[in-house]
Each structure stands twice: as C-alpha cells, then as structure tokens.
Amino acid sequence: MTQQTRCPVPHGARKTSRGDDASSPAVELIGDTWHVRGHDAVRQVLRSAEVTQAGFAAETVRRSQPRARRPVLYNDGPEHRDQRRKIARYFAPATVGKKYRELMEERADALVADIAARGRVDLRPVTMRYSVDVASQVVGLTNSDRDAMAKRLEAFFDSTGLPPIESGGPAGRFGIIVSALRNVRTMAPLMRFNRRDVKPAIAARRTHPQQDVISHLIESGYSDEEILIECVTYGAAGMVTTREFISMATWHLLQNDSVRAQYLAGDQAERYRILHEVLRLEPVVGHLYRRTRTTVELDDGTRIPAGSLVDLYIRGGNADEQAVGTDPLSLCPHRELADGVREEALSFGDGSHRCPGNAIAIQESDVFLTRLLALPVRLASSPRIEWDELISGYSVRDIVVEVAR
Is residue 169 assigned to a domain? Predict the structure, then answer.
C-alpha cells in the first residue's frame, strides 16, 4: 500500500465511538473467546469455510428450533450456499437498477416533498417508511397498507420487555427475532405483522407467484411460519439497518458543508464513494461472531482451536491503518486503501454471509439523500445514539431536520 498522507480536509470523526475502535492487538484470547480486530484477520475468518454463524443469536436459534428450516441469516454450509444462490437474483445490481430505481425515486420524491411542506420533521419515521417501501417490493410484502406496515414494524423492532431466551439472553432488534422464534404464537406485535402483512402476501402469491422472495420461499416448500421468520429477518437486515444508515449519513453530510457540496456536485461514482466512506466509518453492525468447526490458522500463524467462539470487530477492522490508511477514525472519501480492501471495508461483512442487499442499500440511500440534501435543510438539534448490545449496532434517535423558509 502507498503511504497515505493525512486527510487534507477533515470531514468529521466517527460519531459512534464506544471503546471498540482499536485494531490492535489484531488477535487476542480473552477468557474462552477469541477477539479479532485487525482488518485482514477479520476478513480471513469471515471467508473461512471452517466457521459457522454464531452471531445474531444463531446458536440460540438452532437450539430452540432444531428441526425447523433455518432462516438464511442463520444457516451455513451447502444449504446456505444454495439459499444464497437462489435469492441472489433479487439483489443483483442490474436488477436493483432496472426494477426498483423508479420506485425509489417516486417514494423519495414524495417523502422529501412532504418534508419541504412541513418544514420540520424527525427523519426516523420517514426513513423507516422509505426503507419499508423499497424492501417490501423485494421481499413481496405488497398486499397491505405500507404506511400501516411501517408503523407495525417500527413498533415490533422497538418493542421492550420481551422475555429473554435465557439469563443474560439477547437484546435488541435481532434478539427480538430470537424471542419471536420461541414465542411465535404469543407475541402480539409479531402476530399483527403476520396477520395483516405476511399472510395476505402469501395468499396472493400462492395464486399468482411474483419475482420476489416470498414467491421463491413458497416454491421452495417453506411453511407459513418459516416464511414469517424470513420476513422478520429481512425486516431487520434490510429495512431497519438501511434506515439507520440513511440517518447517520444525513447527520454527517449536514454537519460538513464541504462534503455535502462534494456529494451534491458529484456523479454517481463520487456519491457512492462518499456513502461507502460514511459506512466504513460508521458500520451499522459493529461486531460479528463465528464458531470454529476445526482449527483455523490465520496468516499471522495464530491457531484458533476447533469449537472456539470468535468475536470479530467490524469497527476495529474498519479502523485498521494497514488496510484503510492514516486517520482511520476520520471521514475521508478519497483515502488510499490497501489492495483488496473495499471502500466500505468490512461494513457489509465478507465471505458466505456478506450482506446480499449491499447494492440496494447504497442505491436507495443515494436516491433519498440527493433529494433531501438539495433542500435548504439543516439539523435542528444534535441527534443521539442508542445501542443494540447484541451486535454493537447503533440507532440514531432525535434526528430532526428543518427547512429554511
């Protein structure tokens, strides 16, 4: 890698620092858990065929539903590869641009026009509605009122007081999925989503299949309950995380006039470069977890024994100077990266579980932000951060914007 000088124009620092930004030591054993922080080491573990998914409470899911077909997020091996191969066509960049861009533009135009008319809004419900509008088309949740569905999903993922799976059990949005798996017939918010949104979509597609995920699941023989859990998983992975990223990108761009101007003046490649750099700096999911099936030997000679739990620091890996250059906790869209390092670094994961919706997430974020930032809009107050402890993921709260009159 060419030695990079310091970023010539400071565009702001990471807003979500919480003590897990360090990339060294690259690998460390603490108690029974291996903590992996260096970019290349994290990537090597993620790409290894000798590890299984242990994040998002996957091991609890396997214990609680041993005979159920596992959602794609929790699966591994040949079955997982087959699942990913079959759904890949719904998330391919060419498909996203051809099939969903017009919808993104239409919904972004309407929502931003409403912001302009109202003058002052909290972006959180707006970006949730927008993310639901887009993701619902991909998944196939199109046979109910999307405004009402967005509110139901918001209530579901913001639910509190759900019974834990076990002492010290999972919390946060992915923990709720696990609770749903154990309480699928008793949790009221989930049942409302199932009754009013999922079941009508399933019924419609049993008669008239579409090019969407639910139609694929029906064709593959999934039960209604299994389809429900897949819809919840896509809701967390596709709707909620994109909402958080749009909010975070808005926060950064509205606090830096120079990078906002650079974004609005740039072509698509330049805008995507800026968004990827925001995502590198502020990964929505801060930690991933894997369990080793056999001994995994890293390039530095470290041998991680079979059966070990591995905590992968996405935030640390994204701030590794050996991979992303100097000033790793600063926003610098034109930073020099080491060979093979993506612009967003590890923020979409890597290996077999790399986020399949990366192309759609960046495109829908860009479509919305180009319209919002073209308004004479500013932050009305400082947003605040809340945390999903299970994945070290952030939620941006109180992100209120106002339009100059």
Answer: yes
Cα–Cα distance, 128 to 134 (Å, whole number): 10
pLDDT in tens, 166-184: 333 334 444 445 555 445 4
**Residue 98 within any structural domain of the chain:** yes
Residues of the domain holding 134: 27-403
Structure tokens at 400: 């209120």
Q: How many domains, in total, are found in the chain? A: 1
**Is residue 118 in a domain?**
yes
Residue that the structure tokens 């759900």 belong to: 162
Residue 173 to residues 21, 31, 150: CA-CA distances in angstroms?
22, 27, 15
φ and ψ at 397, to 5 degrees? Answer: -110, 155
Tokens of 378: 């500013």
List pLDDT tens digits, range 289-309.
999 999 999 999 999 999 999
13 falls within a domain:
no
Which residues lie below 8 Å from residue 120, measured CB to CB, with a gap of 6+?
Answer: 380, 400, 401, 402, 403
Q: Which tokens is 374 given? A: 């073209």
Q: Which residues does 3 contact at the CB level (< 8 Å), separation at least 6? A: none
CATH number at residue 294: 1.10.630.10
Picking from 203, 210, 207, 212, the residue whose alpha carbon sits closest to that of residue 230 is: 212
Q: DSSP of 190-207, one letter per residue?
A: HHHHIIIIIHHHHHHHHH
Helix 241-254 with 268-281: angle, nearest 10 deg:
100
Specify whether the CB–CB gap between 299 and 41 falls below 8 A: yes
